[in-house]
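Regression test case RT-17, inverse folding.

Input:
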């Protein structure tokens, strides 16, 4: 164990592209997505290699690649010469072939991000706040979308295939921990965020739990793809997580699988228990900062430098590492994970220290039958790929 969340023409109207794809047989669409996924994973591939990896005939693969190239989802690279026969022509994803927008709704900050087909962030808007009251969040989204797309040409805007929302389930919960006014928390109970966001744009809207979306991002764009099975801990205002089994994101019957923030750990009083979020979340660090007369908002304004909070970090990391180690051991005893990923919106140096401290605690736990070794992953914030239905042509197959 190491410790380290739509087919057709895109040149003019991606909506037409989605319609064409959904009317075709699922097998054709699946093969198109499979080819795109393999090219994404390898960077570039010639048709012969794609055919070998997929088991498709050369003729079938040629038709698929020709269509993807016509739709401007693929571009040709310089032919590879020096071998017997015709030069090999590698194909790679066209970054401008399709775009998606990610919205992260956090309890202390919001983010909008524009991603191209390769998963690269083209533009981002970050907004810290005290707590996302529904009206203020919707105002941020409306203003942020204009800012996000300001530099995108009309042609490229037409290639946006959807907007994915990454937000906590039941945002109104944990009122005591957040210290937010009851009326603001209660306002979220009657809000259908997906429907409200859909009023602000014309794209398909897809909702996903925030930590699950971060886990999907690690699987698709990070080192998570090198492991077949792993548990993912994401540390934000509250801790959350995700589960990957056999190389696929596992969300469970109700989408709550990997709710690692709710993992029970020993409480402060002898014989008591509490949830992981009480020890390994930034709301605890925020309270330490407030008691020390520091501005807690520094955590949300700057996720790259927390050097001004060294004493509070020292006080927070110890209990957080202990809680994470207990939860990691518990998860691995059930799932036999090859990796446990610790991630979060924090400076890389803090993440490294947290992982190292967790390793030290884990090594002192009774781990008969579990043989963990721990390292860390670096990612500053969750990213959203196209999180739409399986019929979406741009959704990678993992």
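Golden output:
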């Amino acid at each position: 164990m190491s410790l380290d969340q739509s087919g057709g023409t895109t040149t003019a109207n991606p909506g037409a592209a989605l319609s064409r794809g959904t009317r075709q047989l699922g097998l054709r669409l699946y093969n198109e997505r499979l080819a795109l996924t393999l090219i994404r994973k390898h960077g570039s591939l010639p048709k012969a290699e794609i055919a070998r990896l997929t088991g498709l005939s050369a003729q079938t693969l040629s038709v698929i690649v020709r269509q993807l190239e016509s739709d401007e989802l693929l571009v040709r690279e310089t032919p590879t010469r020096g071998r017997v026969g015709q030069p090999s022509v590698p194909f790679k994803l066209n970054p401008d072939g399709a775009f998606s927008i990610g919205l992260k709704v956090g309890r202390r900050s919001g983010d909008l991000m524009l991603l191209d087909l390769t998963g690269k962030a083209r533009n981002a808007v970050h907004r810290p706040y005290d707590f996302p009251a529904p009206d203020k969040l919707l105002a941020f989204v409306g203003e942020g979308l204009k800012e996000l797309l300001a530099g995108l040409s009309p042609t490229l805007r037409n290639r946006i295939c959807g907007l994915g929302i990454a937000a906590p389930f039941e945002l109104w919960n944990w009122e005591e921990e957040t210290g937010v006014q009851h009326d603001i928390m209660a306002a979220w109970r009657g809000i259908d965020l997906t429907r409200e966001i859909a009023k602000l744009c014309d794209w398909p809207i897809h909702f996903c739990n925030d930590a699950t979306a971060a886990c999907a991002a690690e699987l698709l764009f990070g080192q998570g793809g090198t492991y077949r099975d792993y548990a993912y801990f994401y540390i934000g205002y509250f801790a959350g997580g995700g589960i990957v089994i056999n190389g696929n994101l596992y969300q469970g019957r109700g989408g709550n699988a990997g709710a690692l923030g709710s993992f029970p750990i020993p409480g402060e009083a002898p014989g008591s228990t509490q949830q992981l979020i009480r020890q390994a979340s930034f709301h605890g660090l925020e309270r330490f900062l407030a008691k020390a007369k520091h501005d807690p908002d520094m955590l949300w304004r700057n996720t790259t430098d927390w050097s001004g909070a060294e004493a509070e970090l020292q006080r927070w990391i110890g209990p957080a590492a202990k809680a994470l180690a207990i939860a990691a051991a518990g998860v691995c005893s059930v799932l036999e994970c090859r990796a446990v990923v610790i991630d979060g919106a924090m400076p890389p140096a803090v993440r490294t220290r947290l992982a190292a401290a967790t390793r030290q605690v884990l090594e002192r736990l009774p781990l008969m039958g579990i043989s963990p070794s721990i390292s860390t992953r670096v990612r500053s914030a969750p990213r959203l790929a196209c999180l739409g239905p399986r019929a979406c042509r741009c959704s990678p197959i993992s």
